[in-house]
Write a structure and sequence with these properties.
By secondary structure, this protein is an alpha+beta fold. Helix content is 25%, strand content 38%. The N and C termini lie close together (5 Å).
């Protein structure tokens, strides 16, 4: 079994933003040389998350609207007494900071419309994304 790792950086431009990182993950899988195994995508951050869905501009806006409905940016949060980003922390607890996808025959396996997204909740920021491919 082999393990291949890399860290990439994704720059967000807005406080809340949905960023497609699929090309980065697929390029990493190709470069890893692993033909069958898994890839772990991990965000070492407390105010951003990952999810998979269709990449279409209206669904991106729908996600950003969902984030606001679930946890309003200007809510009355105790954490805001020390740092004005409680909404970002709360959103991250609803989503996740990691995603695991299969690698089969050297290709990232995902559904026809599935793309991998970084959800920024406290931008603009530079986000580290840790990629780990494990397999043969």
């Amino acid at each position: 079994m082999r393990v291949f790792t890399r860290e990439i950086t994704i720059q967000s431009r807005r406080r809340r933003e949905v960023i497609n990182i699929t090309d980065h993950v697929e390029g990493f899988v190709r470069e890893s040389g692993i033909t069958n195994g898994i890839v772990l995508v991990f965000l070492p951050h407390a105010t951003s998350a990952l999810f998979a869905n269709e990449d279409e501009p209206r669904i991106r806006r729908d996600y950003e609207n969902l984030f606001e409905r679930l946890v309003p940016a200007n809510g009355d949060y105790h954490h805001n007494e020390i740092d004005n980003n409680a909404d970002a922390h709360l959103l991250t607890s609803i989503f996740k900071q990691f995603y695991v996808l299969p690698i089969v025959n050297g290709e990232l396996v995902r559904g026809t419309w599935q793309e991998v997204f970084l959800a920024e909740f406290d931008g603009p920021r530079s986000r580290r994304v840790v990629l780990v491919a494990i397999g043969e």
